[in-house]
Design brief:
single chain; 7 strands
Length: 771
Amino acid sequence: MPPKQNKTPGAGSKRKRGSRSSPFTPSSSANTPNNAQGRPSNVSRATRENRIDNFRQRLYPQVTTRRVIEVLLETNNDDAEAAYQQYMAARRQILANLGHPQTAQANASDNEDEEGGGEQGEDGETTAGQVQALPDTIELLTETDIPWNANTEQERRNVAYTLREHVRDSTLFTDTLTRTEAILWNHLQEYDIATAQETFQSVNHVRRQLARIFDKMRTPLQRDVVHMKTRGTGGKKAQADANEEEEETEEERAAAEELKRVSMSQDERLAEFINITGRPDWYSLLLVLQAHNWNLVRAVEQWYRDGVPPYTDRPKRYPGQKGGIQKEEYGMRLDYMTGQTMTKPSPEDCIPSNLEADEDDQWRDEDDFFDPEEEGDSELEETPPPPPTSESKNNDDRKKPGFTINRLTKLPYKGMPNPRRFVFEYIQNGKYVSNIFEPEKFYFPERGEDENRSPKTKRRSSKPRDKPVLFDWNNGKHITFLTNWYRQNLQRTVGTLRRAAHQTWSEAERQWLHDRMTELFQKHKAKNPNKSDDEILEHMHVDTATKNAWEKAYNEEFVGTKQSGGIRKPRNAAALMTMRSRDARICEDFLVKPDDTYFTRRKHNRVNEHMSHHEVGPDPYGQYDFTDFADLDLEGYMRTSTLIEQVDYELYFTVDLNERTFWFWGRVLAAITELYMTRMTVQDQAVAMELLNWVGLPEIDVMTMSEDEVLEAIRDIRDAAPLEIERNDVEMEDEDAGSDSNEGTPRDVPDGASPSHGDADEPPAKRQRLE
């Protein structure tokens, strides 16, 4: 029996199988807004992918298609804001033509441009340029497979049906998907229907991919939410209590680990359920998971078939949120535009109105596992709850990590607005937690603020308060501020550093890059024998093919080898080009424009180092005893890394290693040393090692060096010079004087020798070449 016609008008019209024309190919003015004829783009592929990803994230939780995003970016000359406003104007018109009323499930992104202004008029009306391009944009969007619906929750259900029909069509009606397979595959592709269809290879391929992630989330857990105690901020008291308590038995430690595992599994599944559905009411989803003993796949199936009614009551125990929240606001997520809780969906909006007929039998029956090769008993055993007396008493446990909601995997970029980055959401201990970006120096009109708003904190300051400025997506410093704020939240929540420690450039690597530049120069000289060296160097550049060849050759030469600074990991072409402008010898020999910011910073650091050794007063480092942890008020890895990020941001603007910074690094080194000395497990040594690498210290192998050797190396570096922080995710050269390897030490400058062959830190001068 053929499937029933769409209950929800506006589902994308299906194209005939084998049709050669595509509405996404800008080959005709009929299907392409502004009559753009596929003009070449001037942006790099990486930048273009970032813009597409940013565009898709901004449309969350709507169903999207990258094909339309690519066309709109191209027709708007890669202006992300103009393309977004054009897309949203067409979406609103399509929904209006279909008679879809605005519902509580319509996400803030549907109204973002109306509240924030953007390229629209003051009343949210479209501009003349948008009106002119609107018919072509509407035609472009209606020819996609997006099942348009103002209720984004229903739109996500409908796209599962659309994907199923694509699978049946592509397999000549010999295979199909289950409901949960279609939903979860769309979820993995960020609800991009074009990507979901293009990445489909076979049903078994989909099942194997889903099995790796979601089969483990079928195992039942204890029904009640497990609340784990996390470490507080009282470092002194926690340390004193830890010294007084008796050693735990193996049974108690095992029970505590099991309790933590169950709690983390519950948090992970709840965060994943929110990401899958896009619902604003997280507590309603938690109750459904509990009803299914935390079997996420079964909960997703219920959400598709029967829906999840909104929670309308208030629990006796009111977890996790402060007073002042009304009853109808409990269990709701935060709106990234207004900074207030989202509107609770109505019960009618939560009732599924799916595209297939009631008697549709084209779905495959649900399996016990996604893995097609899974064998054995299909009945899953419930994880027994730990005994009541198994509560952890170990105060040295790390803070239990949380699980992010709608995590943004890429950093914000200048000129790519995305207000969704203003809110950081995560689940921890069975509760929803959100942090909103609202620093004192900025104001946000969409939140009803202007430059005259009152301070958000009561903190007193000796300096007069500057008026807040409008957050500008085209201001690099504003973007950096937002980036650091997001990274700090990610560290505190997930408990890991996103940026790996940078690799120092050894002398062998520098020489290899110099040899490649020499080969390139000889190649150009052979082609132009009548030109002087300076004339050749003036016009010599490294093309894309050469960059890619160098990247491949470098990785074949060095990856896996041990150089000063550790085992070498792959470097990309951008890292090689960056080092060209930071190696003094290359800059001078081949007239490469030096990185003035880098050389100035290195020189500035040496001046500060010299000044610090001639200051009158106590040594800022020496006033701290390395073994006296109680006087530091630091709490180990998480607290220390957070402070490092704060100083990182502070130095980005001031670039000044003042006395306060010296004092801070003394505290950090003391905390690292205490971590190493008092926590001798392999895991804790790895934590100390990560901190040592991240702040720019040389390689210290805690697995092969003795405790005395590690401490002596730290003291040598402490007494030699202040530390330098890597900023802005730029791969920085790190030439530490305390390294034992000859390759990692600065080159000596012989008397009378050219500076280009000596101190690599000095800005080079172009040498005079004699013919």
